[in-house]
């Protein structure tokens, strides 16, 4: 795979709901380009230079650079994650589904994307916002992004972005998260003084890390921590990341399954420009967002439209209404909320349609985010 450098104009993230781009706006001759140059040699030079810069142990780092070179030669080049100022209209070549995820190679989100769309072409993005925009601008066909974790709870940023962008939930995928302690070869647990990872991953391994007496350092994502450990050739630090990240970055697995709770599962949403047609041939879930007037019992009234029809709610999340977070009433100020609700029913079912008609009678805002099949599998 050739890697080319390109300079693209910066783009503004939309403050409101973005409309879909029509197929006619796609550029069939455009292509996504990443990285620093057109060969493996270019990537090796940049890695080697970064390892030597400012380090007194040039010889050791040269040896490590040669190891990194071998890793890069034995596997496909690692793509540079998309950033928000690299978004440009492009078209899929039609051969593989292109799926955006947040993070770098080896992230759990990449595994979720591959579970959701086997044989897809995963496209890493620096930020959640970038992944949303990549779908809207036709850079990719889908996005797979985390929405909640069984231990860490909801990913609030993605709830906010669901409302800001005009994408549709077309599926969900649940991924069992199995954390490993990764370090460079030759480094033992006794050598470690600190550990790098995403804050949630560090929290999920609290007992193990406390027992080892390691200082925790938070970084943007788990795979990014593994990449930093490898590329900086750290000898006193480890990363909490996946076994797949160990393979990609040539690290040694010092310990497996170090999470405090074995039932550590992250739920991801599959997002697309167009909704799918809901069916009744299998278990479906529908996600909505709505707002209500302030008043006693109003939320109870909203939830009752589902209870009276024996519709099971699987999730309810409240988020402040960003543009109007406070409401004045009776000389007092109240928080104004949006309510995100998931319920087990397809929008093809008349009972679900009646429930939303009932809710629409008194809700100040209502939007269906998607009606999609429930993921009943687990890795």
From TrEMBL:
Top EC group: lyase
All copies of domain Prephenate dehydratase, residue ranges: 98-273
Single GO MF annotation: prephenate dehydratase activity
Pathway membership, UniProt: Amino-acid biosynthesis; L-phenylalanine biosynthesis; L-phenylalanine from L-arogenate: step 1/1; Amino-acid biosynthesis; L-phenylalanine biosynthesis; phenylpyruvate from prephenate: step 1/1
Keywords: Amino-acid biosynthesis, Aromatic amino acid biosynthesis, Chloroplast, Lyase, Phenylalanine biosynthesis, Plastid, Transit peptide
EC number(s) on file: 4.2.1.91
Protein name: Arogenate dehydratase
Organism: Thlaspi arvense (Field penny-cress)
